[in-house]
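Suppose a classmate hands you a notebook page containing two proteins, each written out with its sequence and a corresponding row of structure tokens. How would you begin to make sense of it? This section walks through that situation. The first entry is reproduced here exactly as it would appear on such a page.
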Amino acid sequence: MTDTAAVVDHYLMLTRETLPQAARHRDWPVVNDHCFQRIILDHIAGGVWYDHIARPAYKNLTEDQAHRAVALAEDILTGDADLWALDAQSLIFRGKTPKRRP
């Protein structure tokens, strides 16, 4: 397994398992794995991710993108990144109205 593949596997574990499990106990705007992936990928791409990264994203991330995705996922988990703000920006990229923070 290449280093990039190992980092992508870690990203997938964080977004498919760790973050959704943590969301059950936190006041976050999203709880589903695909929502965490959308937010993280949009952020690292600087726009709607699939306009910048070929599908499926997990197979087409560069090593740098994979590392940045893991770092952002970990920052979300620790509270060092504002998930509400990241989700709002992701929705704005998509022409949607962001959710209101409670």
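The notebook's second entry, a different protein, reads as follows.
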Amino acid sequence: MKIIDYPEFREHECITQLTNGLTVKIFPKKGFHKTAAMLRVEFGSIDETFAVGQAKAQRTFPAGVAHFLEHKMFEQPDHDAFETFSHLGADANAFTTYTNTNYLFTTVFNVRENLETLLDFVQEPYFQPAAIEREKKIIGQEIKMYADDPSWQLYAGILANLYPKHPLAKDIAGTLTSIQQITATDLLECYQAFYHPTKMTLMVAGAVDPNEVLDWIVTNQAQKKFPPAKKTFRANLTAQEIQGPTIKNRTIILPTQRVKVAFGVKGTDSVEITSKSGLKYSLALEMASSLYFGELSDNYQRLYQQGLIDDSFSFEIQVDRGFHYLVLTGETESAAKLFTNLEQIFSQTATSSPITANQFEMAKRDLLGGEIAALDSVSSILNQDQGLLFDQATIFDQIKVIEELDLITVVNAWQCFLQTASFSKFEIDPRGENQ
């Protein structure tokens, strides 16, 4: 087990890879009472099309299959894993993203038993056709619920604009039509392709002894037999013909109180997702976004004073496997005026930077402070782990990279991002009238 020390924080992490390929990361936290664990699988909603092993042709599965699989994993032949966690005093959950699926729990009791429960139900599939049909109704209700959520529709709408032919244009849960097409065979094939220890990362943070926890995990895994790992060939989703041309402007009508808008920027420059340089680029974009659009920025204050934004205005940078984008969202009294101002800001900052050294240092301390504060949350430590991205970067790597960032690096990353980027505007209008 490799131990990496971070003396400036009096912290360390322990990393190892078991003989079956499972990557294990342990973050011991002295003085903590709570322990959290997360098992991450490198299979997300965009992984609809892939081939396994010697198969020559890739197969496309119904949209939402990764999320559906997440739901069904908790059901076991004679019990539900959620109930087991509850009896053991743990809070359990799971969630699917565009690129991975995560199963997790937090507890102050029965850490070993909960850890074994986590490993056991994720590594022992049980797909009963009748139960799958019942689950379709449950997930269907979830899809309808999100369809009625204007905030979710705003975010989904701008992604559909940016990537109209890409799986990102589809809801993570799929559609009412696509989930009806999912079969037990589909779930099993996806499980066999991605739910192998070589494509999983188990993370544990909290009041634990690393050697003891590793012994528990090794003992648990030694009792199981896994087939040889097969290489998975995912569809090339970076190809422009798969992403589709950006939709420049689109408006939909929903019964909201105010006009909701989203402004999206799709990056097309190359990003090294497998190395720490990709992490540096991602954090530089986040820093730049904060400098230009964060609450302390001149732009934010000006737009706020003009009444074009309110405290709902926010931004999100996403740099992930095969895609990266910036999305700005908020409510406004005039979508047209806000969009015009945002376009001017992007145009100006694409070639010059009005940021002073003092503004940069203030934004850097703010970002760094948030990361350091996250060290006091075991759940945040696990959620900020990058899995197989950026050379398996952890929250400690993020802090180190932020400390090393300088203004020139941040501005260069921002301008490189904008140089070939495409832009899109999306609006939810409650009256059906463009502002």
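A careful reader of the second entry would note: The mean pLDDT is 94.
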